């Protein structure tokens, strides 16, 4: 950067109220960029248990951004320090405490809403920014140091509710089935908000046990109760092994209508576990009934940022990227932008201030930006499970709402 352009950049930053922040890293007398001081970023993810697969995706997404950017954020060499998330307030607080002792500049990750609630006060008191890349309950309000690159849990339900309000006949019956959990209540609250207008109503939800590894008949009683209502569509909220079990048991009970759900229903390895190949009965049922999901990302989105991200992810991991990996990739991207604004000697407080000034993010999901509650204002997409080549895939069929 020339001296004139550098001076102009600093003037613009000062006009934006970023006193004390510097643009980029240092330059030598020839104008070439020199690396900044090494920094540490703390990654909180589950290394075991039912959420491990999501934790692995989050780790993969963040590391992919680093590998594409010379292992640097904002021009500073990065050491990524991982701590076990666990599934409780106690385990989450232990992870935060461990990483703060390591001297991390910022934190990222967090899969469980329980853990996110549990570490809220510790993060705010430490005044170290957390850019969460998954857990995002709607009741996490009035935070200063917690940002999220994923979504608010009510939003996929809201987006689908708005869509079905326009797509279904007013007399249509929708059966709602979900595990008994705080995240399900957030999702269903959003669905009600989007759908229940103009006199429309959904029936009372039917709740099932909240089990990470359900058995063969775990959902049978609830499904039979739902089907007695003779629904025109089923709305549900399951992930991972629970999603596989629910879909199989729903079909086993004879349901052949459309299924609508937040995109987590078919993310990760769910479709590969359901797909019994060409001519298989399960594949026929899925293609015949139609599984539609709402999500903020799909690997087939046609934009330049996603072409780079998806191609690099497939090459590195021989797998299709998920929304979990994408949100973590974006967490690295926003930290990169914020740290670059701060410059040579970043502090956690300066990085937190800069996160509010990074503006629009050129993301694989499409452009988005942080809103006042520190979550993304972003597009939501309607995806349908379709045969893509020889495999079942989530294929974007239309855009839904922009929420946030």
Question: What's the layout of helices and strands?
Answer:
Elements: H1 3-15, E1 39-45, H2 52-68, E2 72-73, E3 76-84, H3 89-101, E4 106-109, H4 113-126, E5 130-132, E6 146-148, H5 154-167, E7 174-179, H6 182-195, E8 206-208, H7 220-227, E9 233-236, H8 240-252, E10 259-262, H9 270-274, H10 281-289, E11 291-295, H11 304-317, H12 323-342, H13 348-355, E12 369-370, E13 376-388, E14 391-403
Parallel strand pairs: 1-3, 1-4, 4-5, 5-6, 7-8, 7-9, 9-10, 10-11
Antiparallel strand pairs: 2-3, 11-13, 12-13, 13-14
Helix pairs in contact: 2-11, 2-12, 3-4, 5-6, 12-13
Number of helices: 13
- Oligomeric assembly: single chain
Mean pLDDT over all positions: 91
* CATH third-level topology of the largest domain: Rossmann fold
Share of β-strand residues: 15-25%
Structural class: alpha/beta
Within CATH, the superfamily of the largest domain carries the name Response regulator
Distance between the termini: 36 Å
Describe this structure in words.
- This protein is α/β, with parallel strands linked by helices and 404 residues long.
- The protein has helices spanning 3-15, 52-68, 89-101, 113-126, 154-167, 182-195, 220-227, 240-252, 270-274, 281-289, 304-317, 323-342, 348-355, and strands spanning 39-45, 72-73, 76-84, 106-109, 130-132, 146-148, 174-179, 206-208, 233-236, 259-262, 291-295, 369-370, 376-388, 391-403.
- It folds into 2 domains: 3-151 and 302-370, Response regulator (Rossmann fold, 3-Layer(aba) Sandwich); 154-295 and 381-403, Response regulator (Rossmann fold), CATH 3.40.50.2300.
- The strands form 2 sheets. Strands 7, 8, 9, 10, 11, 12, 13 and 14 form an 8-stranded mixed beta sheet that branches. Strands 2-3-1-4-5-6 form a 6-stranded mixed beta sheet.
- Helix 2 packs across helix 11 (304-317), helix 3 packs parallel to helix 4 and helix 5 packs parallel to helix 6 (182-195).
